[in-house]
Design goal:
Strand content: 25-35%
Radius of gyration: 32 Å
Distance between the termini: 52 Å
Number of strands: 20
Structural class: alpha+beta
Mean pLDDT: 91
Largest sheet: 12 strands, mixed
Length: 542
């Protein structure tokens, strides 16, 4: 048995020359404020604190990106036991030193420094400004005259420190232009996982070896991104109606084919649009028009309402001046993405291996894995607009099969000396000349198989985060969503059979506003590959 413990401390990364910037707002506190404001129907230009960027980090004698995580102790344990039974039924099971039982467990911490800085450095607002000189006259464009002189000098961009982006005269306008932001949670901690395994290995007669093992892993506080500016279920304080209720009422009528002029007016729109503009709905949209019908009259907004695309709709309303900043989506940014620890995962795997050591001209390995991996996010976290949890209000939404979940995995390889030639079963007495042609042949191969990977059905709807598409909602049985791949025509069609395609479509619906669909409920095609080799060995004359 082995016992051990590992301690590691990854300090927050910093730029040694001080070229490091960060915002002054704790993102988790900002989102908690947004939750309270939405529930109370509070929104104004300043109802949310503006994110202001300034110099931070050790090089500037200022705070780090986040507080260091100093409790990263990783205990480990491992054991191996080779039982010895000289007689009785236990000898039949375990043999005399023919069996090994092994197991272990460990706490393992990740390294995240490079991923963190990659995301944060996308936008620092102090070090990523640029400037350019545009001359549209080819005849008078600057010319290269020599190595020692530049054709034109471009003045350095003006940098303001501190910098409050997308705010002018106290008005946040970033959501009008779909502005993005990237940040790191000030309470970020080092992700870690629990790893554990136990296995049984038994030597069998005939040069066989059987290995049956279980391996598991629990991921905790995993590296994910979240959107602190996601669409909130904002309450109209006059009527008490919630944003998503109003949107879903309209969505139901549109999907039922109700004419625009006949759509029931929603108090949320009637109050929010008129109060922000200081005008009646008739003054804004025309005599006899309600604010609801005026909003729905736009084909773009009508499509967003129809498919449950709350994120794009709310951004559109603010962009066109129908609602004020911080109603539904933050006014400063359409997306306020930040790195946090909201991810978690679980893996369970059964691994079975049968090996035959080389004897009697045959050797092979046969391996099978039955496993299941689940998480609430599988995307690479250190990507631009990637690795987002679906709903910051409920990070558990979307927990299901991982994007890389492979239930069945088989691989096998073998080497077989064909029984021809001198000393073999056929032609065992062959002379040297004959043996040159019939002896020395060897057949080998490698076979791999895996079951299909899970995938989701797209909707082109962004019901919460402005850039995170929600999958469709499964309303039927999963088997009805299976079909045969067709390669006829210009595209590859997963549902080649029209009847299977219709059944698959009937198994799903669009999301409702504020809703997240069913993640990874379908499976792609399986894959197999077989490589076969026939080889001939020749003896050289020396």
């Amino acid at each position: 048995m082995n016992l051990g413990v590992r301690y590691q401390y990854y300090s927050p990364p910093y730029e040694k020359n001080g070229f490091q910037a960060g915002n002054d707002v704790d993102i988790s506190e900002l989102f908690a404020l947004r939750q309270r404001n939405a529930a109370a129907g509070i929104a104004s230009d300043s109802s949310e604190p503006f994110l202001t960027y300034s110099l931070i980090g050790r090089g500037n004698n200022a705070r780090p990106y986040y507080k260091g995580d100093k409790n990263n102790f990783g205990p480990r344990v491992g054991f191996a036991w080779a039982p010895s039974f000289s007689d009785g039924p236990m000898k039949s099971v375990f043999g005399d030193r023919k069996t090994s039982i092994r197991g272990g467990a460990a706490v393992v911490y990740e390294r995240t420094a490079g991923a963190l800085t990659f995301i944060q450095d996308q936008l620092s607002y102090l070090f990523d400004n640029s400037n350019a000189i545009v001359n549209g006259n080819l005849a008078s464009d600057p010319r290269f005259t020599g190595i020692g002189s530049l054709p034109v000098s471009v003045p350095a961009p003006v940098i303001t420190n501190p910098n409050t982006p997308f705010v002018e005269d106290g008005f946040p306008f970033g959501n009008q232009i779909g502005a993005f932001n990237y940040a790191i949670a000030q309470n970020f901690q080092t992700p870690y996982s629990y790893e554990y395994s136990i296995g049984f290995q038994r030597e069998l007669p005939g040069d066989f070896l059987l290995d049956v093992s279980y391996a598991g892993r629990l991921g905790k506080k995993l590296f994910t991104q979240a959107d602190a500016a996601q669409t909130m279920n904002f309450k109209d304080p006059v009527s008490g109606q919630l944003l998503f209720d109003a949107l879903n009422n309209i969505q139901t009528q549109l999907q039922n084919g109700v004419a625009i002029a006949s759509i029931t007016a929603q108090p949320w729109f009637e109050n929010q649009v008129s109060s922000y503009n200081g005008l009646t709905c008739a003054q804004i949209f025309g005599t006899g028009r309600s604010c609801t019908s005026g909003v729905v009259a736009s084909a773009t907004r009508r499509g967003e309402l129809f498919r449950g695309d709350s994120g794009d709709l709310v951004q559109n309303l603010f962009q066109n001046g129908f609602i004020g900043p911080n109603v539904g989506i933050s006014g400063q940014f359409s997306d306020n993405l930040y790195i946090t620890n909201l991810g978690h995962s679980r893996y369970d795997g059964l691994l079975v291996s049968l090996q035959k050591r080389f004897s009697h001209g045959l050797q092979f390995d046969l391996n099978y894995t039955f496993s299941h991996s689940k998480d609430n996010n599988s995307s690479v976290g250190n990507t631009v607009i990637g690795g987002l949890v679906y709903d910051l209000n409920n990070p558990e939404i979307g927990y299901g099969p991982s994007d890389f979940d492979i239930r069945h995995l088989i691989n096998a390889n073998f080497i077989y000396e064909l029984p021809f030639g001198r000393g073999k079963w056929i032609g065992g007495e062959a002379n040297s000349f004959v043996n040159t042609f019939i002896g020395g042949w060897q057949l080998s191969g490698i076979y791999t198989y895996r079951s299909g990977l899970p995938f989701s059905v797209g909707t082109n709807s962004f019901p919460l985060s402005f850039t995170l598409e929600s999958p469709a909602v499964l309303i039927g049985s999963v088997p009805s969503g299976s079909g045969n791949i067709s390669t006829t025509g210009p595209n590859i069609n997963f549902f080649g059979d029209p009847a299977a395609a219709a059944a698959a479509l009937a198994s799903f619906r669009n999301v409702r506003n504020g809703e997240t669909g069913s993640r990874n409920v379908l499976r792609g095609p399986s894959f197999w590959n077989f490589d076969l080799s026939l080889a001939k060995n020749f003896k050289l004359p020396w």
